[in-house]
Write a structure and sequence with these properties.
The protein is an alpha+beta fold and about 140 residues long. The protein contains 1 helix and 7 strands. Strand 4 and strand 5 (about 90-100) form a beta hairpin.
Length: about 140
């Protein structure tokens, strides 16, 4: 089971890195994550995830790493993660937060925004991975 989860996370991480490299080269991705075809289509560089424990609880982490204990009545935690690295027995994830701006027609321009908060989870502690719809997250890479 852990081998399958490791393989899944490694594959997602590889697809995201490919999509980001293509984004840096000013190419536009169309369709599935990492499958670039037509220029001018929507860009995808992230497959957001929810990671679950054996007790069916989603892992969560603070959105702001400067306030990791969520002091000052801060409730801002997220369970939406982006896999950044799989190394040995652990995977490191970036916390994503819901975008709070829209395009003027009520729809979000980008569904998630990147944060500077990360969490490292032992793969043996992951019981399930829920993949959410591929999206674009501005990673400030340019």
């Amino acid at each position: 089971m852990h081998t399958e989860i490791t393989r899944l996370l490694v594959n997602i991480c590889r697809m995201q890195k490919t999509a980001v490299r293509e984004e840096i080269q000013e190419e536009m991705c169309d369709g599935r994550l990492g499958a670039c075809a037509n220029l001018g289509g929507p860009k995808f560089n992230t497959r957001p995830l929810e990671i679950y424990t054996i007790n069916d609880h989603a892992w969560s982490c603070p959105i702001d790493r400067e306030n990791p204990a969520c002091k000052n009545d801060c409730d801002e935690r997220t369970c939406i993660l982006r896999v950044e690295k799989v190394e040995g027995e652990c995977a490191t994830f970036r916390a994503l937060k819901h975008a709070n701006h829209d395009c003027g027609d009520g729809r979000h321009k980008h569904k998630y925004e990147q944060t500077d908060s990360f969490i490292t989870i032992k793969i043996k502690d992951i019981a399930a991975v829920r993949c959410l719809r591929d999206t674009f997250v501005n990673l400030c890479i340019r």
